[in-house]
Amino acid sequence: PYTGPSKEEVIALRKKYLSPAMFWHFREPVMITEGKMQYLFDEKGRRYLDAFAGIVTVSVGHCHPEVVAAVDRQNSLLQHTTTIYLNNEIAEYAKELADKMPGDLKVVYFVNSGSEANDMALMLARAYTGNYDMITLRNGYHGMSPETMGLCGQHTWKQPIPQGFGVRHAMNPDPYRGPFGNDGQKYAADVADLIAGATSGQVAGFIAETIQGVGGAVQLADGYLPAVHKLVREHGGVCIADEVQTGFGRTGSAFWGFQNAGVMPDIVTMAKGIGNGLPLAAVVTTPEIAASLAKRIHFNTFGGNPVCSAGGRAVLRVIEREGIQQNAAAVGSHLLSRLRALQQKHDLIGDVRGRGLMLGLELVKDRATKAPATAELGEVFERMKDMGVLMGKGGLYGNVFRIKPPMCITRQDADFLVDVMDHAMSTL
Ligand code: PMP
């Protein structure tokens, strides 16, 4: 049993010594002291079904035994040296990760967070093309470094500081709220307008999530990505897929989210699920693009350190051996159909969307006006927590449930989640 400081003591420590810009999820904060696969345990030993996976980070399960064993083994053998010496772990890991990529995406940079990965991707795009304007999407999220904060398209994450430069935010191709519905071509025309009206005509590139995560599991309108990739390349740019949330089989139907859209990016960024909780992230690109930064040294002290590499390799093995992607597809489609059925019952549910275990449920006060039901979501969210399910939330208006559990979740867990949601909504 847990024997550390009480919840009240931890709250006091946090208030005094940690950032005042931190937030907690529930009215009464939940304290988590243990995790096992798809479940979390609080300081009193109470179990919760984790439907948010540490914000889409725990991919194969909390403390998965094989990942723990790989990290433990490496931890006592060699923790760290940096890439000034050779080590097999980072080299073998780079090959194993590159083997998961299609086409010519074969050069890997290891870093420590999604923000760093996207910073690196921007640097590559600009160095390779010699241009600086970046096109990205409103409602997107790409990180908290000053550069990536500039890419974010939501006020929530904007600090009053200079952010990035040359970033142009295009209209979000949101099938539910966007003015053109699910017509990707019409939204792509906005990118053409943006390039013509706000840039020199030559751009460094385009970056987007393949399903928006923080923005509320928004799937980009049909045909949008192929059209925009073509357009951006015609204007000298490269295309970046931010797979920080959608990668590693989470969408079920593909290992990488961009494969669902039928596009082939030039640069792919990944974090979160890559390490199942370890501070690990990566950028993968082509040898040609990578060559653009080879005139000088590029260095990252912890990127790809032996412990994280050993853990990342174990994550790839587990995904393969346990059929994690197939499970995301099977449980995800069961969950999606049960949530669609729930939508028939509760008018509060305006939209149900997503793929695999990257799902969103948008709550509205009125299906015609689509007025965000933010307070109602907060209430359902609290009640679900009290019944043992920790949900995610997001979207520009905070009215979207984000359901992105560890991908080892079972059909029974999915049924439990929907039954709990049904009960919480029925008693609202
Ligand atoms: N890209 C996406 C799509 C993300 O969801 C996040 C984190 N929420 C990031 C980048 C930034 O990752 P990190 O917090 O590890 O810097």
UniProtKB/TrEMBL annotation:
Gene3D superfamilies documented for this protein: Aspartate Aminotransferase, domain 1, Type I PLP-dependent aspartate aminotransferase-like (Major domain)
Q: What's the top EC group for this one?
A: transferase
EC number(s) on file: 2.6.1.44
Per the entry, which co-factors are needed?
pyridoxal 5'-phosphate
Superkingdom, taxonomy of origin: Eukaryota
Instruction: Tell me where it resides.
Output: Mitochondrion
**Entry's family note:** Belongs to the class-III pyridoxal-phosphate-dependent aminotransferase family.
What is this protein's record name? Answer: alanine--glyoxylate transaminase
**Species name for this entry?**
Tetradesmus obliquus
